Amino acid sequence: MAAVSRARRVRRQLPLSPWLFAAPGLLIIGVFILYPFVSTLVNAFTDKRTLIPGEFVGLANFRELLHDDMFWIGLRNSTLYVLGVVPALVILPLLLALLVQKNIPGITFFRSAFYTPVVASIVVVGLIWVWLLDERGLINSLLEAVGVGRVGFLSDQWLLLLSAMAVTVWKGLGYYMIIYLAALANVPRELHEAAAVDGAGAIRRFVTVTVPAVRSTMALVGALSSVAAFKVFSEVYLMAGPSGGPAGEDTTLVMLVQRTGTGLTGRVGYASAISVVVFVVTVALMLLVLRADRRGEA
Amino acid sequence: MTRTRKGELVLRYVLLLAVLALTVGPFLWQLSTSLKGPTEDIYSSPPSFFPRHPTLHNYERVSDTIPVWDYAFNSLKVATANVVTNCVGSALAGYALARLRYRGRRAATLAFVLAMLVPVEGIIIAQFTTMRELGLNNTLVGVVLPGCIGAMNVLLMRNAFLNLPYEIEEAAYVDGANVWQRFLRIAVPSVRGTLAVVAIFAFMGAWDDFLWPLIVLSDPSRFTLTIGLNYLHGTFAGDERLVAAGTVIAVAPLIALFACLQRYFFRGVGEGAVKG
Hints:
Shape of chain B: globular
Strand content of chain A: under 5%
Largest sheet of chain A: none
Number of strands of chain A: 0
Structural class of chain A: mainly alpha
Distance between the termini of chain B: 44 Å
CATH topology of the largest domain in chain B: MetI-like fold
Order of helices and strands of chain A: HHHHHHHHHHHHHH
Number of helices of chain A: 14
Helix content of chain A: over 70%
Largest interface: A-B, 91 and 95 residues
Largest sheet of chain B: none
Order of helices and strands of chain B: HHHHHHHHHHHHHH
CATH architecture of the domain at 81-247 in chain A: Orthogonal Bundle
Oligomer: heterodimer
CATH class of the domain at 81-247 in chain A: Mainly Alpha
CATH topology of the domain at 81-247 in chain A: MetI-like fold
Distance between the termini of chain A: 46 Å
Number of helices of chain B: 14
CATH architecture of the largest domain in chain B: Orthogonal Bundle
CATH class of the largest domain in chain B: Mainly Alpha
Shape of chain A: globular
């Protein structure tokens, strides 16, 4: 009884203040996230340009996509990016977490050092690797010194894409390592000890004890990294250049959105249609990974 | 038994050092390149890892080539503003979602969850159009605004407030404290840890951001560091020493920040991942 009247008094006392608290946040996400999201969905069905309002054109943009070679190149590269980057980012950080899990002297230094690439801006990381992979850069100098000869990491279409993927993995290792460390802390020690007593070796224990125990974390990392990989922009933009490498063959979907939609002659409507494809694939990837996880548990 | 233990330990350290070389080595190589003078060969094979006559000459040249300190100051302004708005805005909104009772609270929470799920890369063109309609493109305010109260930060703060025991605030209420007093004197001081995480990731996010400033800024006098570096790379691509010095200027402050505040960085990953 007393609690009810007290709650009522609380409500009576502050008719407006809840909205005053929430208003700045709601205003910002409303104007700069939710409204642009809805207008992207709407613009995808118009021929809007940067300086021209445009008219409703139905599915014309999407029909044009089907015949646009650049769109298919972008879709191919963004998809390849997911396929190349995600398995590496699900497995390598887990191995790294196992390596730094044990509290041996100096381990906090190593954990922090492995996290450094996460802290650096993608622009810094991209430019560091552009120099490392340069025709005359460190890696080619080393390759030449051991007799392999120089490799055109940044001039061949496929090597470029592969190099960009390697950079993405390099920058993401530390981030996902921390996520795995938190998950590994919850794996009961007894499981490992029991398996060891039963004579299971390190690899066997990894497969039968560690992997099942961190399975849902692996799905989470898979979801996070696949969504991020499909939306890749900066690494490829910096390493292949704004036009996307030789003949634009390294263009990714988000690069295409940026290139198509900006500038004075930007085709906002068409760029929005590509964005809609990005939305749909992103949501699909998330659902796919999380569903695979649920099935794995059942 | 002890011998295999020792062997395992040695193997562990060997692997740790190998990964260390792989993750930190590239930064050191960049630093080394930036310290090499104009007469030193930076392309030699086998490579020389240490500059023979270390010099700061390249850092002077960067500031002669692009207004790098202005760019750094712009980045600092953007990052600081992003920290302040995110801390204040997400603490206020998080408190409203966690503690205050009002019609529409569920709808408000849903709005923040939806905003968190929207992939930013997909809406940049529409954001740019909105910014142009507001007359804020090509300004630093325009760089800050879209992310100035991050939906994920709001939800992080909401969870932090939800985890506080309600009884303390109830006691304060009985003592006659109004909602602002309870918020400022009791709730906020109790979630300082989460607030620190929000602050650090807001700073790092703004300092490192590339795609959005690239789209919204067109006037080279207003560039942030990341956009300035991209410009430097695009215009003076052949001058490796110059680009190396520029990247060191851009990354050094963040590495220093990270060295001082590591545990908040690590906590942020854990808290962010659960929500993500």
